[in-house]
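My current task is to audit a protein record that another person submitted. What it holds is a sequence and that sequence's fold in token form. Thanks in advance; the entry in question is below.
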Amino acid sequence: MGYVILRVEEKLANKILASADDETREKIKVYNLRFFEDTNKNFLERYVNLLLQKIGVSMKLDGFEYLKRAIIILVEEPEKKERIYSYIAKEYNKSYANVNDCIRAARNKAYKNANPKLYEKIFRREYEKCKKMSQYEYLFNLVEYVNNNYANYYK
């Protein structure tokens, strides 16, 4: 029921809510809120998945998962940027060095498979200069791209 109300036009949703009794209306609002919170996280994860695949990061690599998780954490909680690899290492029960190495390998392989025009759009520099970016620069450019473009993706 909550999904239907989120998907129908606003006028129709208002008619449905107006015809419902107070108790039902309250349940619908709570259900919609919970549904939105759950799906919003799924949409962000899906968006980051697509972005990483588009720039050539292989889903088979551990670095894909670590990079995806780092982007999601930094979009949701930007204050964690100082120790992001430590958060990822702890979450996956790996060492900092392992996370660092896996993300580096994923970035390097992605560069070889990349679409140069897309890289230039996302990283705002010439394709050849993208290889010289630090891992943090690479990660923070992706986070900035997601922050600037994610809201428009699902409109």
